[in-house]
Amino acid sequence: MDIRLARIGSRLLPKQVASGWVKVTMPNRILIVSNRVVKDHLYQTLMLQSVPSGIEANVMTVKKMLAVYQDPRFDTFKPLLLTETAKDMAKLVKAALI
Predict the structure, then answer these.
(1) Tens of pLDDT, residues 39-50
(2) Is 60 within 8 Å of 31 (Cβ atoms)?
(3) Fewer CB within a 10 Å sphere, N or C end of the chain?
(4) CA 92: distance to chain centroid?
(5) CA–CA dist 80, 69 (Å, integer)
(6) What's the Cα-to-Cα distance from 27 to each of 23, 30, 42, 43, 59, rounded to whole Å?
(7) 45 burial type by CB count under 10 A (0-12 exposed, 13-18 middle, 19+ buried)
């Protein structure tokens, strides 16, 4: 997995990220890692509507992201990795994802 950009932000996928950073980093997927957002289906739906066309997005827990990163089936991913909190990003960094 070739992580193109890792970003921490409470809004996760604002317009600036959805349009600006996607053009610069050219990811083939957006991975939103948030234990809270996984449980909030309305927020997920609203957020996923702002994903630029041609790019897939997934919302997952920190634990799921750690499993996905270790799985060779996802080696073709070039994601824009978004976390809601520094604590979640620190867990990913500690596990040597970034």
Answers:
(1) 999 988 888 888
(2) yes
(3) C
(4) 12
(5) 13
(6) 8, 7, 25, 22, 16
(7) exposed
